[in-house]
Structures are given as structure tokens and as C-alpha cells.
Amino acid sequence: MAAGLLPYRISGVPDRATDLVAEHVTTIRPPFTRRAATIGFVETALDAVLGGALDFVDHLVVPHTRKMVQAAYRQLLLAQEARPDLRLPSVHYLDKAYIPSPAASRFNRAALEGLADAVASWSGTPLTTHALERAVDVMNTSRALLARVAALRKANPPRITGPDALAVFGSAAVMPREAHNDLLAAFLEDTPPPVAPTDPVRIHLAGSPQDHPAVYRAIETCGAVVVGDDHCWGDRCAWWPVRSGGAPLDGIAARYDAMPACSVEFPLARTVERCVDAAVGSRPDGVIFFDLDGDEAQLWETPDEIAALRAAGIPTLHLPRQPYTAHLPEDVTAQIAAFVTSLHTAGVR
Amino acid sequence: MTSVPDRLPAVRRIREHQRRWLDDVRAGASRGHPFLVCTSDEAEEMANALGIAVLVINYWNFVISAGGRAPALTEALHRRGYAGPHFFGLGLAAGLEPEHAPWGGLPTPTLVVGSTRNESELRVTELWARALGCDCYPLDFNFSSPERRIPPDNWWELIRDHGEDLVDPGRLELRLDQNRRFLAELEARTGRALTPGALAHTMDLVNQQMDVMTRAADLVAAAPRCPVSLRDQVAAYQATWHRGTSTGLALARDYLADVEARVADGVGAYPRERRRLLFWSMTGEPRFHAHLREAHDAVLVGSPYAAMPATYARTVHGDPLRTLTARQLFLFDMRSTSWMIAQARRHRVDGVIAVERPSPHPSRFAEACRAEGLPYLALPHESDDEANRTALARFVARL
Ligand code: SF4
Ligand code: SF4
């Protein structure tokens, strides 16, 4: 943004066939028997990139987050090398150390500086302190506005639906942020009316990231409202403002260093604590863990998180190994419905 | 007709040694000797240089599944909400339900060394440390982290002397810092001190052992008839779990002596060897091998295990910890097609078999073999079923 480029965040494409991944990526995977873990939103996003769906993108930053995302860096390089006719963006690897230490902070700072240099060279515009300050300001304003949206749905009664809130958060990542801020500010001028006539069941959604609204819709079809969530297409978009004062790059680097990649933070207890805090902050009647098949971190985190929530007296529903699809299987929607009903009849509130 | 030789005596001794060693570790740990649990290629040399026993998770998981305990332990994970098929988590499961574990479970280790190899391994090691009642010490980046610096296809020609050049310099410095702090932590917790030269000595032992194993593999590959079955080749590889110790070196020398004897006597491991094949997958002997041998007189003479020892041996340029760290960040890259082709040539094979996910598109490995005029067969799994048998018959017919 400070270099005058438009950042555009890539998401998965539910139910997209992954023929191009099979053609260009699976063929470069080494022969092994054990199935490499795949997760739908990464495979389909990669397929979309290979298919030219992002032909308006010039440069792709591949972050060091979950392993499947990181692996896309080499996969895209190899695919381009094998097939020069594919129109792929150039790729840049944004590295990150997970385990906190002073050396890790230096490492993460260097990775960020590398990105700043790359961005400057792509745009042909050096990153001035002034431009960086301005970008930090726009992003922090955005986070503050998104936090107000998050508060709207946490209100009692909620004043924005789960799918709508998800759309607001998601759109921030794919359009010019200043314009998005203007639209949000206008939207927030008047407090919207409650989204449900009576007191709806309040659900907090935890587990894997959700970049499309199918799960939200399934929950709200049952007469509940998703009042909060815990993934990086949702409430988390409003978290971690860049600290003001000081050199802007220092602030951005400090944020990058402190922010967990996906949910992966060491130790596990910190991730669990963050999950519980987020859930409790939503004042939910129940928490649903929707864990995508292939989400190898969440797989090991959910049971601890459920135990902690139970200890806090919050009912939970665990939906493990879910497909990445816009059309949830019937047994899953039935489990969601039964859970919501149980919260109703239990009169938790 | 030559009779089929029994399993190699050295392999039997390696297997016996493993069993004894596990008992010794357990006994030592229960007397309060320090011991570590870590995932492969993360901390073994550092522990060995300090004289601390180290159990490698991957090996422990093999022990567990070889003992037929995987189903009960998988169920134990499911009961606790950890859904899905499991392999890496089996050791954790055995920690949670020691009644299903070999020897009734592990004694409490000094540390479980965690790895950010992928999202799940860090979590599994953390949960495991909690189950065993010790701390988890995480290390960042390792050879299976997706690369930032992409190794060239001929990395295997450069690796011995130029290992450092193959890894990202920033990651090398970071991991070096983590390793130094890890060593200090180990010293503090165990009261042991790393003596000057200890790590250099360990690295030297590693190199010697790997050179011996490579020499053995060269003899196996070059002999007119394959002198050691694939099963024994893979079993001998277990000595690698003790690399950097005099025991590991002795086991390797013992194996080499047996191989030399078989070569001198002209003994072949397989009674009939009409076709020689390379098995380019890391799963050990595939279940279809018996059928392949009996129905087609075609035998598997080599696998990546023949080439891996050479990837461990590294020239130390001054600082052994730096050399080791670079190796932890890059051990080998299975994506290299030239590595596979070199192994096929080394073993003078008539064709290559690999296990691949079924796909309408030929893999790079298939294409590399075609370019070399080497027949290549991709099978979807290693079972001995009708579909595989049919594919094998067709493949052997065109060799
Ligand atoms: S969970 Fe968030 S940080 Fe992790 S890969 Fe997905 S979008 Fe990136
Ligand atoms: S996860 Fe599936 S296989 Fe495992 S216990 Fe539950 S139902 Fe059975």
C-alpha cells in the first residue's frame, strides 16, 4: 500500500476441481506412499492461481504460515519452470520463525525488510517513511472500524449476521482499504436494527479458518446467530493494530513478529488461552469447532480448547475432518441443528 | 540352483542390538540418566556429543506399529478427540495410554524436542511432553520445512562439501542460535558439559559410519548378483539411528564385513535375478515384492536407503555445529530426478518402480526415466493385490 500497490488477499474456492494442481503440482511431488496432508482452501487457491484466475495479480507473496501454504512457493516456481506458457505471478517468500527469541525477532524483521525491498522494486517507488506512516494509519483505522463491526454482532441482540460480518471482513482484504474504510464508516453511522426478532441462540465459531459463509449460513438457518469467531477471515482481522509512534517499519515488524502464523503459537497453552478469550468475549450460548480435513494444527488444538471451554461452563460441538465445501453434508447440518436446539431447550441463557 | 541365503547375520545383530539398546535406555532413564525424545535429524548428534541417549520418534513409532499396537493407540487418540488416521501421533498415544505401549511406556525424558517441521509435529511433541511430565523444547526450521532457497537438482553432488551453500543463510543463523541455546539448556538440565572437540568427534564418527554404509551400498549395487535383499538393506539402515557413536560405527562395519563376504563368495540374495529393478519410494520392502520375485524373477535391488547415508556425511569447515546445523536444514531432496537416475545407473537396473498417487499426468520421475530410456512403473500403493500384479506383469513383459 505504501508503494502504491493494491494488496489482494487470496482465498480458496470451495468445490473447485483441482485438475491443474494434479497436472502441475502433484507431478512434481516426490513418490511417497503416505498421503501428503492437503487442505481444501490451499489446493483450490493454488489451482485458481495456476488457472489464471488471478491474472490481474503481478506478484504473489507466499507467507510462511501453514506448511501447505509455504510449499506453494516452490510448487509455483517449478510449475512455471516446467511450463513457461502458464501466466503466473512472480512469487516472493515471506519467511517467519515461529519460536519466540531475540534471534527470531531479528529473523522476522529481516524477512519483513526483504518484503519491503521487493515491494519497492516492483513498484519502482522507494518506500518513504511518510508513505509507510500513512499506510499504517489506514490499516489501523480499518482494524478499528472492523472491531466496531465485530462489536455489533457481539451486541445483545446482535446487529449484524455472521455471513454479513464475514463479507465485511473479507471485502476489506480485496479492495482499496481507504475506500473500504469510507464505506464502513458510513455503514456504522447509524446503529443497524437487531438481526433477529427474538433472542437468538448465540454461537461462537472456532476451529479452522472459514473463507466462505457456508458454515455461518448453516448455523443461522437454525435460528442462531454467529456472534463471534476465531480465525483469520473473521474477528481476527480487527486484532493487532500496529503500535503508533516510532519508525513505522519498526511497528510493522513488531506486529509481524508477535502475531501467530495461523493458530500456531508456542506454547499450546497460549493458543488455547487466545481461543478461550475470544469465545468468552462473544458471550456465546455455545461454541462450534468446525475443523477442516487436513488442518493439522487445529486437529491437535481443538480437544484442549474444548476442555478449557467446558471448564468455563460453555457447551461445545466438535465437527472434525470437515470437507471444504459450500454445500455442507446433511449429517453435519443436522448436528449443528441438534446442537442449537439443545442450547434452546437447555435454556442456557 | 543356489539356495536362498538367510538374512544377513549383521542385520540380525543390528536388530538384536536395537532391542537391547531400548532396554538399556529404559533402565538407565529409570536410574535417572538423562534421555531425550526427538524427531529424526533434529537433535541426535547434539545429544550424542553430550553422551545423552536419544530416542527418535519416527523409530519409536515404527517399533509401536511393528508390534501391532497402532489400532489400539489410534483408538486412544480418537477417544480424546484427535480424529483421523495417525502415524506421527502414535508415540504420543503410547504416552497417554502406557498400557498399550511397548514395555509399558517410556520413562520420563529430560526433554521432548519439539519441531515445527509442520503444524502437527509441534503440537504432538508438546502434548507428548505433557503426557510424560516433562518440558517440550521446540526448534524452528529443519530439512522438511518448505525451502526458501531452492536446492538445485544436482544437490547430491554438492552436499558433502558445500552443504552450507544449499540452505538459506538467515535460517542457518537462526537455527544456529537455537542450537547453541538448546545445548546450553541440555548442559544446565543434565549437569554435563560439552567438552571441546566432542561435537567435532561426533561429526567425524558420523562421516566414518556413513562412508562405511555407502561403501557397503556401492558393493551391493556393483556386485554381479544382488548380494543383500532389499529387506536387509532397509533393516541395516537402522544403524543410522546411532550415528555419531562408536556403536553406530561398529554396527556399520559389521554390516560391511558381511556384505564383503557375500560379494567375495558370489552369493546372491535372490535365487533368480532375471530383471533388476530400483524401488524409488521410502517405505521399505513393498508387499508385492514376493510376487514380483516368484512370478517374474524380477527383484528390487536398491532404494533411496542406498543413497541416504551419503547425504549425512558432511565436510566440517571449521565449526562442526555450523556444519551440523546446515545439515539439519537440508538433508536430501526427494524431488531431484537426477538423484533417482544416478541411483538407477549405480544399480544397473532394467527399470524403476515407484509408489505415486494415481494421476492422468506422468510425474516428473516418469518423464525423467522416459528421457533416459528407462522403463518406469507408478503403482498407487505397495499392496500385493490383483491390480498391482497385473500392472507388474505388463511392466516386466516390456523390459
Ligand atoms: S490460517 Fe490464516 S495465517 Fe494460516 S494459512 Fe490460513 S489465512 Fe494464512
Ligand atoms: S474418530 Fe471415527 S474411527 Fe475414531 S473412534 Fe471416532 S468414530 Fe471411531
Automatic annotation (TrEMBL), chain A:
Signal peptide: none annotated. It holds the Pfam family HGD-D. Belongs to the FldB/FldC dehydratase alpha/beta subunit family. This is Benzoyl-CoA reductase/2-hydroxyglutaryl-CoA dehydratase subunit BcrC/BadD/HgdB.
UniProtKB/TrEMBL annotation, chain B:
InterPro entries: FldB/FldC_alpha/beta (IPR010327). It comes from the Bacteria. It holds the Pfam family HGD-D. This is 2-hydroxyacyl-CoA dehydratase. It comes from Pseudonocardia zijingensis. The lineage of its organism: Bacteria, Bacillati, Actinomycetota, Actinomycetes, Pseudonocardiales.
